[in-house]
Design goal:
Number of domains of chain B: 4
CATH class of the largest domain in chain B: Mainly Beta
Structural class of chain B: alpha+beta
CATH architecture of one domain in chain A: Orthogonal Bundle
Distance between the termini of chain A: 40 Å
Strand content of chain B: 25-35%
Distance between the termini of chain B: 38 Å
Structural class of chain A: mainly alpha
Radius of gyration of chain A: 19 Å
Number of strands of chain A: 0
CATH architecture of the largest domain in chain B: Sandwich
Number of helices of chain B: 9
Radius of gyration of chain B: 26 Å
Order of helices and strands of chain A: HHHHHHHHH
Oligomer: heterodimer
Strand content of chain A: under 5%
Largest sheet of chain A: none
Order of helices and strands of chain B: HHHHHHEEEEEEEEEEEEEHEHEEHEE
Helix content of chain A: over 70%
CATH superfamily of one domain in chain A: RNA polymerase sigma factor, region 2, helix turn helix motif
Shape of chain B: globular
Helix content of chain B: 25-40%
Largest interface: A-B, 56 and 59 residues
CATH topology of the largest domain in chain B: Jelly Rolls
Largest sheet of chain B: 13 strands, mixed
CATH topology of one domain in chain A: Rna Polymerase Sigma Factor, Chain: A
Shape of chain A: elongated
CATH class of one domain in chain A: Mainly Alpha
């Protein structure tokens, strides 16, 4: 997958505003997978996530004339994806397995086949800890760490200033570190 | 995915700078460990991406057919085969003809819709030129073009309104987001906030018959009878099957009641914001997904309501200069 620079995305945004379909295709190919992945963190369903993100791109095309190339298109897409994923959770929450349960079962199954037990355990714990972060911290952290968005872009997604984004990420890291130290001190693999 | 593995260092100096020297190594380790999780997820195959791109264009085409604004470009290739040129050319000719007529009559006036908006904290009742009476809930917008009552009987709605429509040969319709409600002579309630998550449009009928469908799939219609309710939101092909509903719950707002049945906190807080003209901040967006059922036939003070909700949902609240902040 190609990674697009901010400048490239900006150029694509301008071309998309002018109804350039090949620019739309290019943007889709570059950002679709990571947006699906991002939605999947909420919905826990690849099929639903693909549906959501396709919908996001449909909206982008329909609103292309209103897209402001000076604002980050990437933030805009992430924001829409997040909103829709959350809406989806709201509408179908009764059908969705709670996040924690899902992680446990998924991780247990990987446990059996693991070659590096210790690393697995660390991953398992960190996944759990990240899921338990306060929402704002978690979102900022995930967008930074997993999606590779910069502070400015995350700020666009979350509707806060880059400085606040930094605070959230730092708080998240502190949180994770505290839990990690506490676990090490107790010498237990489970926490709380 | 080279982009992932190569950036194992904390990308932003601002993050690193927020930690003391001896903390940094540990933080870096956590950063790296967290990166491992991301790598475990399966990749989407190129083939799949291409297929989804195709289906995205299909969706765009499907929806643009029903929109009046058919902005089209020449450099498209995928959809040309599906839409014959003659058809597209015709629509342009019609558009041009219509534009000419508009210019000739200097009819800018007719393009500007007439709109009614209700401030937060207030409700309003308006009578339209065809005799229809509309009661509008706080924060609602209603608009129609100037030919309403002459060439059409269509209004647009963002919000919640109760319609009392007199009988006529021509049908009366309400477009709410992408949902369409068509009636002859009836009384019914429409709730469709574009600000609510999922943008559901709910229709409840008290008298007469109502036809309800999404403009995206006009062939999938639901017919509602008195006492029934149905909803549609983007993503559904057809509105939900009609279900009996307590009228008091559906239109209690007209009598200043607050009725929430299995509603998410986001929707409830949106409603309270409009009704009481305040801002309610949620510290944690995910809290908004929790649902609650609560009824007030005589609403007490907003503070009492907030207190009730937070107690039931095991949350805390603080008063802010213009409302409340809710947190865990």
């Amino acid at each position: 997958m190609k990674k697009l620079s901010t400048e490239q995305i900006r150029t694509l945004a301008e071309r998309i505003t002018d109804a350039d379909r090949s620019a739309f295709n290019e943007l889709f190919r570059a950002l679709y997978p990571q947006l699906v992945y991002f939605a999947n963190r909420y919905t826990q369903s690849m099929a639903e996530s693909r549906d959501i993100v396709q919908d996001v791109f449909v909206t982008l095309w329909k609103r292309r004339e209103q897209v402001d190339p000076d604002l980050s298109l990437k933030s805009y897409l992430y924001k829409m994806t997040r909103n829709r994923a959350l809406n989806h959770l709201r509408d179908y929450s009764s059908m969705t397995v709670p996040l924690e349960n899902l992680h446990e079962s998924k991780l247990r199954s990987t446990d059996a086949s693991s070659s590096d037990d210790q690393l697995e355990k660390l991953n398992e714990q960190i996944t759990h800890w990240i899921n338990e972060l306060p929402d704002r911290q978690r979102v900022a952290f995930e967008l930074s760490r997993f999606e590779g968005l910069d502070h400015q872009e995350i700020a666009g997604v979350m509707g806060v200033s880059p400085k606040t984004v930094n605070n959230h990420i730092v708080a998240a890291l502190k949180n994770l570190r505290n839990r990690s130290t506490r676990t090490n001190q107790n010498g237990t693999k489970r926490f709380e | 995915m080279e982009s992932r593995s190569s950036n194992n260092n904390i990308p932003d100096k601002r993050i690193v700078d927020s930690f003391s020297e001896d903390e940094r190594e540990e933080i870096q380790k956590i950063w790296e460990a967290a990166g491992e999780i991301r790598r475990e997820t399966p990749e989407l195959e190129d083939q799949m991406i291409e297929r989804d791109l195709g289906s995205t264009w299909n969706r765009i085409e499907k929806s643009s057919w029903t929109h009046t604004n058919k902005g089209r470009s020449r450099n498209g290739n995928r959809r040309r085969s599906k839409q014959p040129y003659t058809r597209r050319d015709t629509s342009w000719r019609w558009f041009l003809a219509a534009a000419m007529i508009l210019i000739v009559f200097g009819a800018g006036y007719f393009i500007l819709p007439k709109s009614y908006s209700v401030a937060y904290g207030e409700t309003a009742t308006v009578q339209l030129s065809d005799g229809t009476i509309v009661e509008l809930n706080s924060g609602t917008q209603l608009w129609h073009n100037r030919l309403f009552g002459r060439t059409n009987r269509k209004v647009h709605l963002d919000g919640e309104a109760y319609f009392i429509v007199p009988e006529s040969d021509r049908s009366f319709s309400v477009q709410a987001n992408e949902a369409l409600i068509q009636v002859s002579g009836t009384e019914f309630n429409v709730r469709s906030w574009s600000s609510d998550p999922g943008q559901p449009t709910q229709v409840t009928v008290s008298h007469g018959e109502v036809e309800f469908y999404s403009i995206l799939s006009p062939d999938k219609r639901v017919y509602l009878s008195p006492g029934e309710s149905s909803q549609w939101y983007p993503g559904l092909t057809s509105p939900t099957d009609p279900e009996p509903i307590s009228m008091e719950k559906a239109i209690g707002w007209r009598n200043n009641m607050l009725m929430f049945t299995e509603q998410s906190l986001i929707v409830i807080f949106n409603e309270l914001e409009r009704k009481f003209n305040v801002q309610i901040e949620l510290d944690d967006a995910e809290l908004g997904n929790r649902t609650l059922t609560t009824h007030y036939s005589e609403p007490p003070s907003l503070e009492t309501i907030i207190q009730d909700i937070t107690v039931v949902k095991d949350l805390n609240f603080l008063e802010t200069p213009n409302g409340y902040r809710i947190f865990r």
